[in-house]
């Protein structure tokens, strides 16, 4: 592309001499322009010398644009997509999240966009297996393992069409904006187990009240049954809640209420499309280096052109942006050629902004898996523990 521009000054001088010879008049520098347009179909630049109507000394009728050269464009320079605005790539405010520890759900509560406020995602329910099953015994190890889906995802449509996005989020030239929230299980962190131990066992250091790990072991020193017969529920010696499985389906036993907190990372993502724009660098003899633009590809292209003007003297260019319809590339904005896909990818939400002590958040959505003896739960693992009665042979 650079090589083609180097040849332009000589070409233009020859062209100017031809025009003067044919018409006997040199055209005014104020109106003669050099135009380069990119053809997205052929992937080439079409450049020509253009004499607009009303130019002093122009022949009658006005001549068609004079074709000068075709150059292979640098891949990726054109067409371009306008950069997104900050609210578009972060529809929920940085500190606009709320976390419900009881439900393990994250909600966007503060957003400038009505469809985003209220977007919620809850952690995936984790299942717990244990051995022995269905009942454990005093002074016998119970082995626990937690497993389950590692991702939970939800999404909302922020706006669908170009007109909707302009009305709903006041951003022009975008469509199909979607906002995603998800939890990813933090397998590099450690779950925390609550064993629901009898108070005196913890105080006397007979048994810990908590455990750690994706797999854990705990030994109970006391039965989950009442130690004193009939008693009030507020008495720590009473039966544990009667919801644990037994050897018979539908029969439930007093059980320790084991709970496990699993760690999760919160993330968000935005996908959207922006209107593609085609551009033409229009050369004029007295427009000085006016093609500065925020787009790096376009800016570098214009800068190379300015440094190598098509004609000696003070030359510059101006950039004309046109969308697909204005550029004649499509009949309507529904044509896929008009749009460029964007995806922020999954971005981390630091859980400390909504109250966690860590970059991740602990959630309580875990319970026993479904078996022939009991249904699945998502908030507790009932563990019946029975006393083992010794039997002595009498001789």
Describe, in short, the structure shown:
The protein is mainly beta. 13% of the residues lie in helices and 36% in strands. The protein has five helices and 25 strands.
Structural class: mainly beta
Largest beta-sheet details: 14 strands, antiparallel
Q: Output the helix-strand order.
A: HEEEEHEEEEEEEHEEHEEEEEHEEEEEEE
Rg from C-alpha positions? Answer: 37 Å
- Unreliable stretches: 1-30, 58-83, 283-318, 391-395
Based on CA inertia axes, which overall geometry fits?
A: elongated
Number of strands: 25
Our estimate of the beta-strand percent is 35-45%
End-to-end Cα distance? 107 Å
Task: Walk me through the topology.
Blueprint: H1 2-23, E1 33-39, E2 44-50, E3 66-72, E4 80-81, H2 86-89, E5 97-100, E6 105-108, E7 120-122, E8 126-131, E9 136-137, E10 141-147, E11 151-159, H3 162-169, E12 174-185, E13 192-194, H4 199-203, E14 210-212, E15 215-219, E16 242-245, E17 252-254, E18 256-284, H5 296-307, E19 316-323, E20 339-343, E21 347-349, E22 361-363, E23 366-368, E24 381-383, E25 385-386
Parallel strand pairs: 8-23, 9-25
Antiparallel strand pairs: 1-2, 1-18, 2-3, 4-18, 5-6, 6-7, 8-10, 10-15, 11-12, 12-18, 13-14, 13-18, 16-17, 18-19, 18-20, 18-21, 18-22, 18-24
């Amino acid at each position: 592309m650079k090589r083609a521009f180097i040849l332009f000054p000589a070409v233009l001088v020859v062209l100017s001499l031809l025009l003067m010879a044919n018409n006997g008049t040199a055209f005014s520098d104020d109106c003669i322009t050099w135009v380069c347009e990119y053809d997205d179909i052929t992937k080439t630049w079409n450049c020509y010398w253009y004499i607009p109507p009303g130019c002093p000394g122009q022949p009658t009728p006005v001549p068609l644009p004079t074709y000068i050269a075709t150059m292979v464009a640098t891949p990726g320079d054109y067409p371009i997509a306008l950069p997104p605005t900050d609210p578009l790539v972060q529809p929920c405010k940085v500190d606009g999240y709320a976390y419900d520890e009881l439900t393990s759900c994250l909600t966007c509560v503060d957003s400038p966009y009505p469809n985003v406020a209220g977007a919620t995602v809850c952690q995936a329910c984790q299942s717990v297996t244990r051995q022995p099953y269905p009942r454990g015994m005093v002074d016998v190890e119970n082995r626990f393992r937690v497993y389950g889906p590692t991702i939970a995802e939800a999404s909302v449509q922020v706006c669908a069409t170009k007109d909707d996005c302009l009305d709903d989020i006041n951003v022009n030239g975008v469509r199909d904006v979607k906002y995603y929230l998800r939890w990813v299980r933090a397998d590099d962190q450690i779950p925390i187990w609550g064993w629901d131990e009898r108070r005196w066992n913890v105080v006397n250091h007979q048994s810990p009240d908590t455990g750690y790990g994706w797999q854990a072991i705990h030994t109970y020193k006391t039965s989950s049954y009442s130690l004193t017969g009939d008693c009030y529920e507020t008495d720590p010696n009473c039966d544990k809640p009667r919801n644990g499985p037994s050897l018979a389906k539908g029969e439930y036993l007093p059980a320790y209420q084991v709970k496990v907190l699993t760690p999760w990372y919160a993330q968000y993502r935005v996908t959207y499309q922006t209107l593609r724009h085609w551009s033409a660098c229009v050369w004029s003899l007295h427009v000085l280096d006016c093609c500065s633009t925020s787009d790096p590809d376009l800016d570098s292209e214009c800068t190379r052109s300015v440094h190598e003007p098509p004609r000696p003297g003070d030359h510059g260019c101006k950039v004309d942006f046109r969308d697909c319809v204005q550029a004649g590339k499509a009949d309507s904005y529904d044509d896929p050629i008009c749009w460029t896909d964007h995806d922020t990818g999954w971005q981390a939400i630091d859980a400390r902004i909504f109250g966690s002590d860590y970059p991740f958040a602990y959630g309580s959505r875990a319970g026993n898996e479904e078996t022939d003896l009991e249904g699945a739960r998502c908030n507790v693992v009932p563990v019946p523990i029975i006393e083992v009665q010794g039997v002595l042979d009498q001789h």
